[in-house]
Specification:
108 residues; five-stranded mixed sheet; 2 helices; 5 strands
């Protein structure tokens, strides 16, 4: 199962962590993992390459994390993260056995 942790501060999404393999199909053929991976990549590209937000991106073998620097927060950046949240919630409704959504509060 893929776990998507939505990181929130004062009710606003400021980042997320994505970990695990959905298990929908074998690695390389898994449409659920492909949808999530593509969404994560798109968010990173928009935030950093298009908006120059300088979002912190961490990639390791098991987890991808993207966190918006609160000092560089912008309305467009929050809108992108909110769209990611809605997309992940929609995917989790369509594939409830394969995606788990959690909300956590930021300590920042």
């Amino acid at each position: 199962m893929t776990t998507v942790k939505l990181i929130k501060s004062d009710g606003n999404i400021v980042g997320f962590d994505v970990s695990g393999h959905s298990g929908y199909a074998e690695s390389g053929s898994d449409i659920v993992c492909a949808a999530i991976s593509s969404s994560v990549s798109l968010v990173e590209t928009i935030l950093n390459d298009s908006f120059g937000a300088g979002a912190d991106v961490t990639v390791d073998p098991d987890t991808v994390s993207i966190t918006l620097m609160l000092s560089k927060s912008c309305d467009k950046c929050r809108s992108v993260l909110e769209a990611f949240e809605r997309h992940m919630l929609a995917l989790s409704e369509e594939y409830p056995k394969y995606i788990k959504i959690l909300e956590v509060q930021s300590n920042a």
